[in-house]
Design brief:
The structure holds two protein chains of two kinds. Chain A is an alpha/beta fold. Helices cover 36% and strands 31% of the residues of chain A. Chain A contains ten helices and 14 strands. Chain A starts with a strand and ends with a helix. Helix content of chain B is 75%, strand content 0%. The chains are: A alpha/beta, B mainly alpha.
Chain lengths: 303, 530
């Protein structure tokens, strides 16, 4: 059952089209990775979902309610962490966390103190003295200490150190175990890879790819590392093989998933002594989409 | 230490060219327009002598300052007397805002960190800001001198004009130096601006009390020095040189303080905050109060003080009236009302204008916070926009009401302590309360701007300035009635002299409500910034 659903979501700022017919679907208990470079429309989408911007056309619903008209009711069951956390300079971090939790409607002191401890935040410091990472911690603590059902996290780890990033990932896993849903916007692809079930890629305001990470990988390439008795020659001439590289004794290359069978038959003729296969990194998927886009643009520009 | 000051100076002048240009244009043009209208309106000595009578009482001396040239009150003397203090106040505000922004403001926001990582000296930014302000105030002085000389108004002289321009220029340098010092003491730009404005108001009040009761106090205030220069009357240069000297000392102090401290720190240390939010801090309403706590405490103290100062003047006014037979004859036309009674309305008007400032700041806070993206988290909570804006409005109405009434109370208490013939507290409070609908109107219009034209919400300050000038200078400049009626304060009766018209006040209140409701509707529909 979808917790969050948009259809043909479009937003125009004057003549500039920030979003065009975006279709998103986050199911209950799912962690959805929303990826794209800066300026692609991630934050605009999120601000529409939060009822801060009004969609020019299209539909956006959370918990089956309209995000603009029923924002207050939706927000009772939702927690949000912005990418750029701006806090009130003359409040302490502890005061800001308490205030946010109180305004949501419930302040669970035990959970709140536990989170402050986990993230190692000094709650006595004034918000004006916090670094970007510490401001992000304040928003993360206020979100994770709430009992929301849907978490919208907009690049929540861009200022965290690797230790804190790990704690953040643990917290997200715990949410998943509790059956909660998460929309995680990020451009740290390793993080998305580790956490998300489903991924949507947005480019220039359009959602160009979405589906489960597994399916997406299946449709693409596998990376192979091979050592053989006889030297491998003329590999790149075989269809379905890309990016051949020689690494000491081994050869590394990528294979289109649907050509894997033929390639393996071909390789066995050389006497395989070592074989390692790795699934394609999300980064490869991501880069491919953008490289294609750039190629197309260059071609279009020339014509 | 001062490497690249020249580069930074050019950069600053470029950055602030519009702000500086606007301030200078407004200051010079409004001065020249006033001089022109005074020449047009008071061509005869008899006109001006009549005008003096209304300016010579202690209330007006406290507000506008005194003149030593009343026995030959020419246009030049009149211009300097009426304008020098108000212009000095405006110049002070300009110096504070621009200096604080480019010193502590840039340090707080991080631009200065970038600049300091370049081959620039530790003192370069401060030096560039001081030089930029020096250039601005030299231009101001030159603009005034050339402008006034070009108009060839009666009673002006080159010597007087030079002094007039120089006096206003050095007061700007004084407040630049003072703000630069406070920028070293405080570690935030809010703190810097707060301390500087506190000093500005303190010096203004010191001069007011000094002018009315004890001249020694006047000589402790830079506004007093400027006033004592008396351009076109006796043309004293010594007080202007004194101001310039003190301004230089303040600059030296600022550089010394800047040399010794760590980047981004201040000499006044911030104390640590609380681990948990108190019971009171639980929603948008309490948040708005909390964010402005320090400034509200300062405003409350300031308003009580201002009221008490005006009140203490009433005693002098009563005595002045008893000693002045001619005034007694003029006022006999209005039997039953003393000069004290007639001044209460005017004093309450001044208090109402001041009280509207913290109220408007509280309402504009909502939009300021939105622009700084500090409300993003709040908007993601189950708090409707209707609730947010209504909370801000309720806070603003409350602040305006309390500020006005508390100042009126201060006025009543101080007034009755010095008056031989006391006026009832009820009269004072009623005279103040009738101004509330006018403050609500200002809040309503501010709400409309926030809801519909958020980018232009700062325009409300221009309207407040107009609302003040239309009433305060309306008579002096002989403005036509319809122009005056664009100010909500024009509809307010001066209690106890005038009768209370419920109709006009209800109209104002209703107008305020409708305008605000329109703003509210806009706020609920529009995209949020940030």
């Amino acid at each position: 059952m979808p917790v969050l659903e948009t259809s043909k979501l479009t937003k125009k700022f004057g003549k500039f089209s920030a979003l065009e017919a975006v279709e998103l679907q986050v199911n209950e208990g799912e962690i959805y990775g929303f990826i794209g470079p800066n300026g692609a429309g991630k934050s605009t989408t999120i601000r529409i979902l939060l009822g801060m911007l009004r969609a020019t056309s299209g539909k956006a619903e959370i918990f089956g309610m309209d995000v603009w008209k029923e924002a207050v009711d939706i927000h009772k069951r939702l927690a949000y962490v912005p990418g750029d956390v701006n806090l009130w300079p003359n409040l302490s971090g502890g005061e800001a966390i308490d205030l946010l939790l109180k305004m949501r409607g419930s302040l669970n002191r035990q959970k709140r103190n536990e989170m402050v401890e986990r993230f190692g935040l000094d709650p006595k410091k004034k918000c004006r003295t916090y670094s970007k990472g510490n401001r992000q911690k304040v928003a993360l603590i206020a979100a994770f200490a709430s009992d929301a059902e849907l978490f919208i996290l907009d690049e929540p780890t861009s200022g965290l150190d690797p230790l804190m990033e790990r704690i953040f990932q643990d917290c997200v896993w715990e949410l998943k175990e509790q059956g909660k849903s998460v929309l995680l916007s990020s451009h740290i692809l390793s993080e998305v890879e580790r956490l998300c079930d489903t991924v949507g890629i947005i480019r220039e305001g359009r959602l160009i790819e979405s589906g489960s990470l597994k399916d997406m990988r299946h449709l693409t390439r596998t990376q192979l590392l091979v050592e053989t008795k006889k030297p491998l020659i003329q590999l790149s001439q075989i269809s379905g093989i890309h990016n051949v590289e020689q690494k000491e004794d081994a050869t590394v290359f990528q294979v289109d998933s649907d050509r894997l069978d033929q390639v393996m038959i071909h390789l066995s003729g050389f006497g395989i002594t070592r074989l390692e296969s790795t699934p394609p990194a999300l980064e490869d998927l991501f880069m491919r989409h953008y490289e294609h886009a750039n190629d197309a643009r260059v071609a279009g520009g020339a014509g | 230490m001062f490497q690249q000051t020249g580069t930074l100076l050019r950069f600053l002048l470029r950055l602030d060219r519009i702000k500086l240009g606007t301030w200078l244009a407004i200051l010079i043009v409004s001065s020249l327009l006033t001089l022109q209208s005074l020449s047009d309106l008071y061509p005869e000595q008899a006109d001006r002598d009549a005008m003096i009578e209304t300016m010579q009482n202690p209330v007006m001396i406290a507000i506008a300052g005194k003149s030593e040239g009343l026995d030959h009150y020419g246009i030049g003397t009149m211009f300097a007397h009426q304008m020098i203090l108000f212009t000095a106040l405006a110049v002070g505000i300009m110096a504070i805002l621009l200096t604080a922004r480019r010193t502590r403001g840039e340090e707080e926001d991080g631009q200065l960190e970038l600049l300091r990582s370049m081959p620039t000296g530790r003192q370069s930014q401060l030096a560039a800001v001081s030089l930029a302000m020096l250039i601005a105030f030299v231009l101001l002085a030159l603009g005034l001198v050339f402008g006034i000389e070009a108009m060839q108004a009666q009673g002006t002289s080159l010597a007087g004009s030079l002094l007039y321009g120089a006096a206003l220029g050095v007061i700007g340098l004084f407040f630049t130096g003072l703000t630069a010092c406070f920028a070293q003491l405080s570690s935030t730009s809010r703190g810097t601006i707060g301390l500087s404005f506190g000093a500005l108001i303190f010096f203004y009040l010191l001069r007011a009390i000094g002018d009315v009761s004890n001249e020694t106090l006047t000589w402790l205030s830079p506004f007093g020095w400027i006033e004592m220069s008396q351009p076109y009357v006796v043309n004293r240069w010594q007080p202007v040189l004194l101001t310039f000297g003190v301004a230089l000392l303040l600059h030296v102090a600022a550089f010394l303080l800047n040399e010794k401290r760590d980047f981004a720190s201040g000499y006044l240390k911030a104390k640590p905050g609380k681990t948990h939010a108190g019971k009171l801090l639980s929603g948008p309403f309490s948040l708005l109060f909390r964010l402005q706590r320090t400034s509200l405490i300062a405003w409350t103290a300031g308003m009580v003080l201002l009221g008490a100062m005006y009140g203490s003047v009433l005693g002098d006014l009563e005595k002045y009236f008893q000693d002045n037979e001619m005034l007694q004859q003029i006022l006999a036309a209005q039997p039953g009302f003393s000069l004290v009674d007639q001044s209460i309305g005017m004093l309450m008007f001044m208090l109402a204008i001041f009280a509207s400032i913290p109220a408007l700041m509280a309402l504009l806070k909502l939009q300021g916070e939105e622009k700084k993206a500090r409300l993003d988290l709040v908007y993601s909570l189950p708090q409707s926009r209707l609730r947010l804006m209504l909370d801000a409005w309720a806070a603003a109405v409350m602040i305006g009401t309390v500020m006005l009434l508390i100042a009126a109370l201060g006025l009543a208490a101080a007034g009755n302590a010095v008056l031989d013939d006391p006026v009832g507290y009820a009269v004072f409070m009623k005279a103040a309360a009738v101004y509330l609908p006018a403050i609500w109107t200002l809040l309503g219009i501010a709400g409309l701007l926030i809801g519909i034209l958020p980018k232009w919400s700062g325009l409300i300050w221009a309207y407040v300035a107009y609302a003040f000038i239309a009433v305060y200078m309306g008579d002096l400049l002989k403005m036509p009635g319809w122009l005056r009626k664009l100010s909500p304060f024009e509809f307010v009766p001066q209690i106890p002299v005038e009768k209370l018209h419920w109709g006009e006040l209800s109209f104002l209140a209703l107008f305020a409500l409708i305008v605000f409701a329109a703003g509210l509707a806009g706020y609920r529909r529009r995209d949020l910034q940030g």
